[in-house]
């Protein structure tokens, strides 16, 4: 694919990412998780767009695990394994884009800006509802790493954002994207 197509994926990813961070601060679950899911999907497909045709990208679907594994296979860096749990947690949100699963199974939704040492995770919960967890700091580092591995300058996509978008992108964000 062309540079233009890769830029389109990264541009959409950045828009989803900014809105996802805003929704995290606003406490909007499960929408926050869905938006982060879309952002990461766009970034990963942005990287892969330089290697795959659009039809092949569509064939990957929306399952982050599948897209992530293709990305990791191409990058071939064991350091990426540290993000496997983040991808697993975000991928859960794809199953609750529509309300029927929430209505039938319920949900426990957690949003944290930073990883809490004793945070209630899915393995620690005694309740029967599925747990959907967002840790914004971990997603920020994942996004930063995707830009690095893709050799894409994040400022190309963030410099044109207005002041409100930049504020939510940089608020409590240790990753260097703005």
The number of helical elements comes to 9
Q: What is the general shape?
A: globular
Please give the number of β-strands.
2
Radius of gyration: 16 Å
Structural class label: mainly alpha
Main sheet makeup: 2 strands, parallel
The helix/strand order is: HHHHHHEEHHH
How many domains, as an integer? 1
Strand order within the widest beta sheet: 1-2
| Low-pLDDT stretches | 119-123
Helical proportion, percent range: 55-70%
End-to-end CA span:
27 Å
| Average pLDDT rating | 91
Estimated share of beta-strand residues:
5-15%
Task: Give a verbal description of the structure.
There is one protein chain. This protein is mainly alpha-helical and 178 residues long. It has one domain (3-170). Helix content is 57%, strand content 6%. Strands 1-2 form a two-stranded parallel sheet. The two termini are 27 Å apart. Mean pLDDT is 91; it is low at 119-123.
In short, what is this structure?
With 178 residues, this protein is mainly alpha-helical. Helix content is 57%, strand content 6%.
Annotate the secondary structure layout:
Blueprint: H1 3-26, H2 31-48, H3 54-59, H4 64-75, H5 84-92, H6 100-105, E1 108-112, E2 131-135, H7 136-149, H8 155-158, H9 163-170
Parallel strand pairs: 1-2
Helix pairs in contact: 1-2, 1-9, 2-4, 2-7
